[in-house]
Write a structure and sequence with these properties.
By secondary structure, the chain is mainly α. Helix content is 62%, strand content 1%.
């Protein structure tokens, strides 16, 4: 009998999905990435690339803040819906994808084989679903209306829960898709009856609320300080000026320095390991057997800074890990800025004075 004593994350690690799932996910994402490039090529301008980079850095940093449930598990916000509101869902898809790719390759956060699935959940399902909810609630409200913050909060909540449900289904179908002669799953051993409730309860009650609050509060802040970022019926283009970009860079710097809270809070409240931190042996204790496919994938990819720790620091005291976290945060910001610049160079369209429709226009925003 499968007993789950700890929780799930939206990030899916290597070994939990079989090729019957992760290969189709990569194929689907290839189509979405190609569509995003085609759409943004028509509208992305040079001066909008910094906002794309800042958005990718924000999602990267916000995912480093683990939120604990006392005696339970940890999770984090993603920020995908917030980026979709400000830049449109296609640009959000690119920004979140860049963050997820960097997390998987450099920091070992999320699997390499599962990267397509993680992008599908957090860079497609989440921002597009949340953006749709935001549009539905905000309607034709002016930029100063509280409806925008309320709609953003609702979109963030629904978007993260949609991504979590998708991840739960991916986990839950593994025992049906691949098992040995004894009926043991080759990959994730937790079926739909276990995976969906475990994901739903935590995200509906805690992590979705956190995502909604982050999204709504940031939108409310921009309404007061930079109302030009709030999409309305009359304004679909998002152009951040240099002063705003500087303020956002300062905000990201503060956020990077505060990332050790993602270590201290779980340690302080004694939360259990999140999904993806379990070894094959731990899975064996919970499920009663070790899935052979999962065990075979363990340790296959060696990231440079595993779990955001500097070399030799993974088992270091909390203070040393905190410094590693901060260094990793700034390394991530710098690399995402570089990746976004390269992506922007490949995607940006021709400059058109006075008649550009902007990133949001390419996204189908009102």
């Amino acid at each position: 009998m499968v007993v789950v004593r700890e929780g799930y994350r939206v990030h899916i690690p290597d070994g939990y999905l079989g090729p019957q799932t992760y290969v189709p996910a990569y194929v689907v994402m290839a189509g979405f990435w190609a569509s995003a490039i085609a759409k943004l090529k028509k509208t992305l301008r040079n001066r909008q690339v910094p906002m794309l980079a800042l958005s990718a850095a924000f999602t990267f940093l916000i995912m480093m803040f683990n939120v604990p449930i006392p005696g339970g598990t940890t999770g984090h916000a993603v920020g995908g819906v917030l980026v979709a509101v400000l830049l449109g869902p296609w640009a959000a898809m690119v920004a979140v994808s860049l963050a997820l790719i960097l997390q998987a390759l450099l920091f070992g956060d999320g699997g390499i084989t599962a990267l397509g699935a993680n992008c599908l959940n957090m860079a497609v399902i989440m921002p597009f679903t949340g953006w749709g909810v935001y549009r539905l609630i905000s309607g034709k409200a002016p930029a100063s209306s509280r409806l925008h913050a309320i709609a953003g909060a609702a979109g963030g909540y629904v978007g993260l829960n949609a991504a979590a449900l998708s991840a739960a289904v991916m986990f839950g179908i593994q025992p049906l898709l691949a098992h040995d002669a004894a009926g043991h799953a080759l990959y994730s051993p937790f079926g739909l009856k276990v995976a969906i409730p475990a994901m739903a309860v935590e995200h509906l009650l805690v992590f979705g609320v956190v995502e909604g609050l982050v999204t709504g509060l940031v939108i409310a802040y921009f309404q007061r300080t930079s109302p030009e970022l709030i999409p309305t019926r009359e304004r679909t283009s998002t152009d951040a000026g240099v002063p705003l970009e500087r303020r956002l860079i300062r905000a990201l710097t503060v956020l990077a320095i505060l990332t050790p809270l993602g270590l201290y809070l779980p340690a302080r409240f004694g939360s259990g390991s999140a999904w993806g931190e379990w070894s094959a042996q731990q899975i064996g204790k919970m499920a009663g057997y070790v899935p052979s496919g999962l065990a075979g994938a363990e340790g296959r990819w060696h990231s440079v800074l595993p779990d955001y720790a500097l070399p030799g620091q993974k088992s270091a005291p909390l203070l040393a890990l905190s410094l590693s976290y901060i260094v990793s945060a700034f390394v991530g910001i710098g690399l995402l800025w570089l990746l976004s610049a390269v992506a922007g160079k490949l995607m940006r369209g021709k400059e058109r004075d006075g008649c550009d429709t902007g990133v949001a226009g390419a996204s189908g925003r009102r």
